[in-house]
Write a sequence for this structure.
């Protein structure tokens, strides 16, 4: 018990990677499979991921990916996972839903039947989603985010560092031959941390009472002190960053890699 | 311009304070100042204008970065470093010292990381 909590507690956005320590393909597959096992509406494959092993990339393409806002990241992270939302995710949804009905994942207890899937679900659910680009991307982005997060936690569990980034979508689209119906989401950088994997402590978070409510939208959740204490012991809640120590580490890293201080 | 000429320029003062460069040795501070001063000569503008070069004002009056000007500035840094005869790690470090000056003046910009 508790390992998952510790992995979640240990996750940080890692921005300094060991540039020449390769990431095992096995570990990347573990991440991809963790993403593949995520919760998803209509059992769709929302995320399309292009894994780029930086040092196997054509040098010309690699140069194209280096822009004034990405160069240091490209240089340091040995694996770049470009994550897209496949906007055709409603295609085949009826077949997948029917399969879930047949497997008992969707069941009559909750109103599901083959008849509903065959005769009603397209007009009631899938067509309205498909017809509205805003809803299509909004729903898809939520489920894609769930999948990406699962991959990130699997990476941390494997001793890797990860960080989500924005990326130059036009350059990547051309360089990686991305189809038009893939909506750019995130660039997930992966590698072994060159920095302290715990980055000197956890980043600030606001108390649950400021963002979680009970019964209505204005009664704050009251933390149970014993649970908070247990979560500290099990590693989900960790000591905060010591800013002075962290500044010294960042300076040392910047000097090692010749980066701006 | 020389290193001493730019030390009290507001953009340079801001850089030193934000990056805690006063903690460096006097030699290291002078090296950084000289690099930025030389780059300003190369770019043909004083420090404050170099930093402001990549910024633009939107129609709503907000400050934003001009992607095109940032690319031009980035290319100019690489050109300056090459023209100055720096190679290898020295080229990466010195180019990024100039980028550090820009970064601490609000320009989001990245240069190469040394992997040697």
């Amino acid at each position: 018990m508790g390992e998952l909590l510790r992995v979640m507690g240990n996750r940080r956005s890692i921005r300094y990677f060991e540039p020449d320590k390769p990431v095992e393909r096995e570990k990347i597959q573990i991440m991809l499979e963790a993403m593949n096992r995520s919760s998803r509406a209509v059992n769709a494959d929302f995320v399309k991921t292009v894994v780029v092993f930086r040092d196997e990339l054509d040098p010309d393409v690699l140069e194209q990916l280096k822009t004034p806002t990405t160069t240091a990241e490209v240089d340091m992270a040995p694996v770049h996972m470009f994550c897209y939302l496949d906007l055709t995710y409603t295609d085949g949804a009826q077949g997948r839903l029917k399969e879930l009905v047949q497997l008992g994942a969707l069941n009559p207890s909750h109103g599901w039947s083959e008849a509903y899937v065959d005769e009603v679900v397209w007009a009631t659910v899938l067509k309205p989603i498909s017809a509205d680009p805003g809803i299509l991307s909004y729903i898809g982005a939520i489920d894609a985010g769930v999948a990406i997060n699962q991959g990130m936690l699997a990476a941390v569990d494997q001793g890797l560092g990860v960080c989500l980034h924005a990326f130059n979508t036009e350059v990547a689209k051309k360089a990686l031959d991305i189809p038009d119906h893939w909506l750019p989401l995130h660039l997930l950088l992966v590698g072994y941390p060159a920095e302290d994997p715990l980055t000197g402590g956890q980043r600030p978070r606001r108390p649950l009472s400021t963002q979680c409510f009970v019964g209505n939208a204005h009664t704050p959740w009251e933390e149970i002190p014993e649970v908070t204490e247990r979560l500290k012991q099990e590693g989900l809640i960790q000591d905060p960053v010591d800013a002075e120590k962290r500044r010294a580490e960042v300076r040392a890293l910047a000097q090692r890699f010749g980066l701006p201080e | 311009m020389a290193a001493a000429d730019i030390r009290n320029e507001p953009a340079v003062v801001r850089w030193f304070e934000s990056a805690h460069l006063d903690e460096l040795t006097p030699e290291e501070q002078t090296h950084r100042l000289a690099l930025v001063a030389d780059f300003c000569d190369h770019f043909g503008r004083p420090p404050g204008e170099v930093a402001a070069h990549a910024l633009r004002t939107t129609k709503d009056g907000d400050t934003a970065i001009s992607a095109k000007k940032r690319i031009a500035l980035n290319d100019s840094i690489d050109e300056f470093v090459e023209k100055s005869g720096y190679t290898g790690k020295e080229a990466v470090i010195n180019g990024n010292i100039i980028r550090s000056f820009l970064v601490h003046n609000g320009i989001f910009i990245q240069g190469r990381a040394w992997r040697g």
Q: What stands out?
A: The interface with chain A takes residues 19-21, 70-71, 73-74, 89, 92-93, 96-97, 99-100, 103, 108-115 of chain B (CB under 8 Å). The radius of gyration of chain B is 14 Å. Chain B has a mean pLDDT of 94. DSSP finds six helices and two strands in chain B.
